[in-house]
Every structure is written in structure tokens, then in C-alpha cells.
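call fold(seq) -> C-alpha cells
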Amino acid sequence: MILEVRLRDFMTFEGDVLVPFRPGLNIIAGPNGAGKTSIVSAIQLCLGSLARERKSRISDFIRRGKREAVISTVIDNRPRGGRRAIPSINSDKVEFTRVIMQRGRGSEYYVNGVYRQYREVKAILDESMISVDNPLVVMPQGKVNAWIDSKPRERLLYFEELLGLDKLHAAIAAMDKGVEELGSKLSELDAKLKELRAEVEGRRREAELLERKEEAQRRLVELERMKIAAEALELKERIEEALKQVHALESEASRARAKIEEKRALERGALSRIEQLTMEEAAVREKLTRAREMRQAARRRMEEAIGQLSDALSSLDVSSARLALSKLREAVRSFEKAVDEVLSGELRLREIQVEREINERSMQQAKASAQRWARRVDELEQQIGGIEVEVAELKRLLDDRSRVVTEEEISRAPPVSEVEAELERIRGELEALKSVDPLAREKLREATSVLERLTEERRKIAEERDSILERRKEAASRWRSTLEQAVRDVNTHFQELISKVGGEGYVALEGADPYEAGLEIYVGFDGAPPEAVSSMAHSGGERTLSTVGLLLAVQKMKPSPFRILDEFEIHLDPENFERVSLLLKEASRDTQYIVVTPARLRIPPHADRVVFISKYEGAVSVQFRDKG
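ret:
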């Protein structure tokens, strides 16, 4: 129950105001505008209500001219029947405080002086089944007939909240939402799976083409290797042929070199002979010069002897003639000898000249021939050098290929032309397959994996949906059976209570669907048969009696720590007001009731506490009187 309500600068209350309550029936009385309903609003605001009632902003609850308002509601939390009203707090008293601030700062909650967020406060109250926004717990001012005139669906939702079935209902709604979402997911997955299956089939065809492409690429590698081997074999054959050429050229060069030596030997022989002839010519010329000098001397002697002989003959000097003739004969012999030597020398000179000319021509011919053979050797050596360079390049190429392929591969290699023809065919095939995605296999695996994953996901979602449907079926059955039992229990109390105020009636659960079911109230007064409560069929007082009857029936079925009724009696005549007051007094034995009324004349004499609210010149005062 509520022990007390404390207010500071809240609405019409200025300063600190204490409103105490007792167990049983509590009456808050006072004129209109004094602040009775403000106390109810304070209780609601402290206990997590989001309703504003007559205020558009939370700060409007602050008394004019004040910076903030502080309201507190103290709940008796002593164990009863082994259970506390608020089981999550191990304290005999629980004080809920709300500080309301100006300028858009909102408000703050405190529980037993400890700051709490709104969601924490709401969780504590929900666990304790305290819902001050539920008209079956707090019936606001002027809402009695409005509530009874509300749609059966709205009544049932409040009834479910009291029973704790709102959570089950929310769970059913969550399950329905889950089923709907899972159904949407399944539909989406089915569409995706259809697309994926088509994609997987396309990927599979692409992967097959990729397999062909890779096989062609492997064959291309083999053929390129085979071509290397075939080229190596051709290189070997070309090297062998080139080496044969080199051998032949070297043989010819050897023969040419022999010819050169032969010609150079002839040249040297001719040169040697020329040198000999030159030396001999010099000797002959020297001898010829002496012979000519001797001839000249002999000629002079002959002339001298002839002169002497002529002189002797002229003088007939026989002796002198004989001596002159003897000198002449000797001079002639010397002359003849000198002439012979001159002729012999001149002849030899001519012979030497001829022989030298012959040897010079022979030397020139040998030299020219040697030069021709030397040029031939140069040509041959150039050819050999060129072939050797070619052979070296061929060997380099062969070495390059020999590092790639084995001797066995080289030995069994087909002709290069055959390999190139096959290569041309493979390259054509690869050209046709060049657009094939190189990641086709990975994409196939990925698509297949996604397909398998989505298929498994669909299976799990379908199982989850079926499981939720099964749980939903069980929850709906539990909801229905719990609600039907609760309605039966309420109906028993309602029939008893309504009969005490001269009526007849019952409560019925209509509709089987959790989203469409409603709580209908059937009543009849003064012998009239029960029919659904409405403003057309029942007076304001009858509707009030029906509302209070249902409220008390619910309280008997599902006790609450407190109930609040704000000016419920407006449409009740004195007789029915007395009847309802007695019913409230009886019900307050088990639950605290706080009733707000504007009329002092309507204060039940059996009230356990009456709180008087008065207002004079803007100041509000609170007084109370207890029973007896």
C-alpha cells in the first residue's frame, strides 16, 4: 500500500507538503481546484507514468515561479504472506522520487535515494505488477464512464496487463512478428536461392570451360616444352653440320697455308738467288772495270808499240822495230785478253740481269701466289670464325634449352614444324576461350558455398519458424486458457458484486484471436436482462456501478497493493453511492483504496482516513481525520 505522498512545489502545492495514507479506505476530499487530483497525478508520475493528463510538458507540473518540483510516493514493502509488494528491493519501505526540472531538463528518478533511469524504475514496477496507467489500478478523474464505454478490445488489454498476460501477449506478438519476418526472409531466400541455382549452373558451365582452358594451357606448356626440345634437336643437328663445315674449311685452310709456305719458299729462294746475282754482278762489274782498264792500257800500249814500230820502220831500226813488234805483240795479247775478259764480263752481266729478272718475276709470282693463298686463308678463317660464332650461339641456345628439357626429351622430340602446327591449334583454342573467367572455379565454389549456406540457413529459418509457430500455438493456448480462467474467476466475483447493487450481469471473453479478442461486460438493472454496457442501453449511474463492480471483481481475483478512484461517484444517486461505498469498504480489507471526491457530504462515514485538501488565497493546506 501507499504510506504517504510528499510534494514540494508541485502544481498548486507550495513548499513541502505531506499526504499520509492508512490501510483500508482512504478518502481525499476538497473543493474543485484545491489539488486533489494533483495528488493522484503525483502518485502516477512517481510510479513511472508517462501520462501528462492536463499538462503538455512535464515542466508544467512545477509551481509557477519555482525552479523545480519534487514528488515522492512511499510504498509499504513489508512481507505479506511471505512476499514483498516489490520483491526486487529488500526493504520494508520503498520511496519512489521524481525531480521535475525547468528549461527542457526533463526529470530524474530516485528509488530509496538512489538515482535510477526510467527503464530501471519501469522494470521494478512491472515486476511488481504496479501499472498506474491502467484504469483498473488508477481510475483517473472523469474516466469511469469513458472506460466502461471503451471498446472491448481496450478493456481486455488493461485486464491482460493486470494478469501479466500483456507480456505473454507481447511475446505472441513478437512471435507473430518473428514468423512474419522469417516468412519474409524465407521468401527472400527462396528468390535468392532461385537466382543462386541459376548462377551456380552458369558458374558450373564456366568452370567446365575453365577446365578446358586449363587443359589447353597445360597442353600449351607441354608443346612449348616439346618445341624447346625439338629446337634443341635442330640446334644439335645444325651444330654438327656447322662443325663438319668447319672441319672441311680448316682442311682447306691447312692446304692453303701449305701453298703459302711453298710460295714463300720459292720467294725466298728467288730472293736469295737475286741477292747472289747482285753480289756476283758487283764482282763482275768490278772485274769488267779492271778488264776495260786493262784493255785501255793494252790499247795505249798497242798504239805506243805501233808508234814505236812505225818509228822504227821509218828509221829502219830493226832492233827497235823488233822490240816494238815484240811490245806490240805483247800489247796485242794483253789487249785480246782484256777484250776477252770485257766480253766475258759483259756477257756475264747480261746473263746475271736475265737471271735476276727471271728470279724477280719468279719472286713476284711466288709472292702474288702466296698473297692469293693468304687471302684465301683469311677468307677461310673468316668463314670458320663466322661458323664458330654461329656454333657458339647455337651452343648457347642449346644450353638454354638443355636447362629446360632433358636429353631424353630432346632425343624423342618430333620435328619443330609438327609441334608448331599443334601449337597453332592450341593457341586458337585458347583464343576462343580467352574470355573465360579465371576465377570461375573459385566463384563456383563460392556460389555453391553460398547456395549451401543459404539452403542450410533456409532450413534453419524454416525450422525456427515452425518452432516459433509451435511455441506461438502453445502460448496462444496458454493465453487463452489463462484468460478464460481469469474471466471465469472475475465473472464469479462480478456476478456477486453486481447483485449487491441491484443488478445482474456477467463478464465474457469474446473472440479467439489474441489481436481481436475483447472483454465485454453485460449488465441489467431493475429486472432488465443483461446486455452489453453502453451509453445507449445504460444510464451514467449504471455504467459507474458496472465499472466499480468490475474493478472490485478484478481486485478480488488479482489483488493489487492499492487502487485509486478519482471522482467516480458523479453519476451515482445517494442510494447507489451508499452501496458502492460499502463495497469499497469491504474490498479495502485486502487492498488499500484511495478515493477522490469533491463533496464533503459524500464522504463515507466508514472511511479509515479522510484527507481534506483546502485552498485559501492561493495556499493549499492538508488535514486528515481518522476513523473513530
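The mean pLDDT is 87.
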